[in-house]
Amino acid sequence: MPHLVIDYADSLAPSLDMDAIMDDLHAAAMQSGLFKETDIKVRAESWRHWRLAGNQAPLAHKHGFVNLHCHQLEGRSDDDKSRLADILMEALKPHCEAAREVSVEIVEITRATYRKHKA
């Protein structure tokens, strides 16, 4: 943990250096001091079909979205989660100048319902 999952509009793909974004987000998660390096996972997925504010106009598709979900196990303080969101946003923003909206969401995973198997 954490899982850093980047969702982005596929129309932004030419302007996003996803390897650099993932490297910077990994470094930012490390900088937070909340995670071990070996526990941080980062992945990205582009979305072809989407709406921004209910609008499918060319402007919306030309200037799409980047949304980072940071899934982590429950138990951290609100201050830690807020600081983490700020650190991740600062790492993400410089890469997303073409995006109309950039967001970061900290998602808590309930320990009682989470399962993990290592092969």
From TrEMBL:
<dbReference type="InterPro" id="IPR004220">
    <property type="entry name" value="5-COMe_2-OHmuconate_Isoase"/>
</dbReference>
<dbReference type="Pfam" id="PF02962">
    <property type="entry name" value="CHMI"/>
</dbReference>
<protein>
    <submittedName>
        <fullName>5-carboxymethyl-2-hydroxymuconate Delta-isomerase</fullName>
    </submittedName>
</protein>
<dbReference type="GO" id="GO:0008704">
    <property type="term" value="F:5-carboxymethyl-2-hydroxymuconate delta-isomerase activity"/>
</dbReference>
<dbReference type="InterPro" id="IPR014347">
    <property type="entry name" value="Tautomerase/MIF_sf"/>
</dbReference>
